[in-house]
Amino acid sequence: MSKVFITGLGFITSIGNDGHSVGESLRSLRHGIEVYPPFQKPEVPVKVAAPVRGFFTDSVDPEDWTYPERYRVKREHLRSMGPHGLYAFCALQQAIADAGLADADVSNDETGLFAASAGSPYLLSYFVHRMHNLGVMRCSPLGVVASIAGTVQFNLVSQFKIRGASTGFASACASSAHALGYAYDEINLGRQQRMFVVGAEDGNVDTILPFAGMRALSLNPDPETASRPFDVGRDGFVGTGGSTVLILESEAEAQRRGVTPYCEVTGWGQASDGHNVAISHPDGAGMRRAMERALRFSKLEAAAVEYINAHATSTPIGDLSEARAIRSVFAPVGARPAVSSTKALTGHGLSLAGAMETGFCALGLRDGFMPGSAHIRTLDPAIADLNILRETVSHRPSVVLNNSSGFGGANVCLALRPAR
């Protein structure tokens, strides 16, 4: 079985559109949340979001979209993309350059791509409405592949000539964490030598606002305090979008190319709550088992973990459930790993979250820091026994866990450590 390393990263996020700016935001706890113009209507109770900057994708016609000049996207490619497809295309270009891959490294039988997204509700609703009101032949021939779940891998696999394994994952907010875990397995088992892992979301009105009906979004209109995981006053999450791409390679490939990895992925674990379609198990039962399995597969002791990037979205129930899971794994062995939620800075990226936050952990492992959990005014007393980081700490942790959870009680834990 091969060791697996992260050798390239690409970011299009609310806190930066490249690794350097994202790292600076994480270190300084600079958030990307703002009063969001499309929400400023009397009938909309939610007022803030964390949009991607530097891109305009509000039009249903991709000919109207604008994006940074450093990226080149062919017109025929744009026509089959949703907004998050463009974000993913740019993040993948960025990751390929970051890893120093040649064209032959990208397109070959040993390189695959796993992706996660919810599709583009914005475009899908537009095309369905057009079909019903103007006729079935008045929709774009590429409307289906631009909007349905799976659009990210459809586009990237064809446009980048990917010839290895490819598929998409749909486990809500655990989706891209699942994609990363199974990409790890492909390399660890010798099926592939390299995998691109992509998470992407539109992050616009149609993606975010339906969660208001679930009472899951924060109604706090202040960008400085709306997303505050672990705070006693948290009242819901803040939505975001964008894309993150991680390049995973086998030890043999990393050595052949002479690259210095960001970190090693040592293993992963998953488990289900078997409890509720939308609410986490109150004791975090599935998340506890996912962490235990990630540690067991990685042959790591709980006491070795120094930092956990928590899923914690800033919801009253979810944060507490995860805190109980962490306590149940680490308290019995007297361990108090540092814990933070970077969603205080980015908002919650839904299916993007697992990939994005694993990317953040990889930056911290390479550059030697653990990001703090921002915006906490009063720590929830039910969580106060945990070692919640309030500020960024300049220290390279020996072992990192990244947690993700999705609807139906799907839980994923990824284990990372510095590259050796």
Q: Any descriptors?
A:
two-stranded antiparallel ribbon; Peroxisomal Thiolase, Chain A, domain 1; alpha/beta; 2 domains; single chain; 420 residues; globular
Q: Termini distance? A: 17 Å
Number of strands: 13
Q: What is CATH's topology name of the largest domain?
A: Peroxisomal Thiolase, Chain A, domain 1
Q: How many strands, which pairing sense, and closed or not: the largest β-sheet?
A: 11 strands, mixed
- Give the strand line-up of the largest sheet: 5-4-6-7-1-8-13-12-9-10-11
Mean pLDDT: 97
Number of helices: 14
Instruction: Categorize the overall geometry.
Output: globular
Any idea how many domains?
2
Helix content, binned percent: 25-40%
Helix and strand content put the structural class at alpha/beta
CATH class of the largest domain: Alpha Beta
Supply the CATH architecture of the largest domain: 3-Layer(aba) Sandwich
Write down the secondary-structure element order: EHEEHHHEHHHEHEHEHEHEHEHHEEE
- Specify the CATH homologous superfamily of the largest domain: Thiolase/Chalcone synthase
How would you explain this protein's 3D organization?
There is one protein chain. The protein is α/β, with parallel strands linked by helices and 420 residues long. The protein folds into 2 domains: 254 residues, 3-Layer(aba) Sandwich (Peroxisomal Thiolase, Chain A, domain 1); 155 residues, Thiolase/Chalcone synthase (Peroxisomal Thiolase, Chain A, domain 1). Helix content is 32%, strand content 17%. It has 14 helices and 13 strands. The strands form 2 sheets. It has an 11-stranded mixed sheet with strand order 5-4-6-7-1-8-13-12-9-10-11, with helices on both faces. Strands 2-3 form a two-stranded antiparallel sheet.
